[in-house]
Amino acid sequence: MSRSAEVVSNIQRWFKANKLCLNQGKTSYIYFNSSPQQSASLPSIQTPVLTILPTPEVKFLGLVVDSKLEWKTHIKTLLSKLATAAYAVSSVRRNVNSSAALQSYFSYFHSVMSYGIVYWGFSPLVKDVFLLQKRAVRAVYGRCRQSSCKPLFQENKILTIYAQVILDTCTLIHKIAPTLTRQGDVHNYNTRNKNNFLISSNKIMDKSFLREGLTIYNKLSDETKSLGAVLFRENLKERLLEGVPYSIEEFAG
Questions:
Q1: C or N: which end of the chain has fewer Cβ atoms within 10 Å?
Q2: Domain check: are 48 and 84 in the same one?
Q3: pLDDT tens digit string along 5-33?
Q4: Same domain, residue pair 135 and 181
């Protein structure tokens, strides 16, 4: 029996011991790799009672996870939902004032946009989400397509999608900081970066919080990073609301 089949057999035994059943029709596996290898060329995992097939992507807790962590399908699906949400905000605005329309924006649009953003938020495709976000914000205040959104974000304390990515990612890193490795943990040199976290060199993590997020977090001041969880988030959020970043680089560059 292969190592993979042995792992699956152990999972089956755990399910059985806990009076649960593994649904073969809803069970598959993903091989995470940055190479162009296709799932079709991967073997199935065979056990005496179960066959598990490879898949290039799978929906998990509302996120469409793909084998190269490019998030193309997830963002494509998200764009469809957000286009509908932006239209809903525009429709609401025709019958209420901007204050009430802003509430509908946060309910219909921003909450959907923000879900799981620490995982997919560093994808280059986020620029398409940002275009829809600006459309929705303009709809709240009845502005035309040519008008600048930056004052609207700033004056009404709305986080751009890039600000939301930075805020949620840095908050997560701040929370798990005790479990992360610092540069000072792997050498004895008293460098100015000794308290910075080590960043993953795995190519598949290029556009993830394990690289992009840690890079941003390392650039925050020691004073900010020393704050407790609540004050850390409040302090960073205030900076982001004031700066209104239109890209990750604009904040962390």
A1: C
A2: no
A3: 788 888 888 888 898 887 878 888 888 87
A4: no
